[in-house]
Amino acid sequence: MEHSLVMAFDSTQQALRAEMLLEYADIENDMFPTPKEITAGCALSLQFPAADLEQVRQIVREEQVEIRGIFRNNEGRYELLAQPT
After folding, report:
1. CA gap 34, 69 in Å, rounded
2. Cβ atoms of residues 30 and 58 within 8 Å
3. How confident is the model at residue 85 (pLDDT cuts 50, 70, 90)?
4. CA–CA separation, 29 vs 23, rounded Å?
């Protein structure tokens, strides 16, 4: 997925819930192991297109999904774009 972002979680339950909500909203996403550069309490993260960032943030906020943060991969370094609300 080119130009994608990563959403990390503190629990597997929240990761699976977010995956379901994004799929319901027709937002392409891939679940994969959380990169070691991101400190998170859950081994799973979701990757989604950067173009969908605002819609994803809205879903997270409205559905009260607990996230560790949303990150952008910048040449192997993960930069925090959005913190939990």
Report:
1. 12
2. no
3. low
4. 7
Residue 3 contacts residue 58 (beta carbons within 8 Å): no
* Residue 3, C-beta contacts closer than 8 angstroms, at least 6 positions apart: 49, 50, 51
User: What one-character-per-residue DSSP string does 38-59 give?
Assistant: S--SSSEEEEEEGGGHHHHHHH
Confidence of residue 1 (pLDDT cuts 50, 70, 90): low
Which runs of consecutive H residues, i.e. helices, occur in the chain?
A: 12-24, 53-62
Per-residue pLDDT band for 75 (boundaries 50, 70, 90) equals: confident
Question: Is the pLDDT confidence value at 13 over 90?
Answer: yes
Q: How far apart are CA 15 and CA 21, in angstroms?
A: 10
pTM over 0.85: yes
Q: For tokens 């950067």, what's the residue?
A: 50
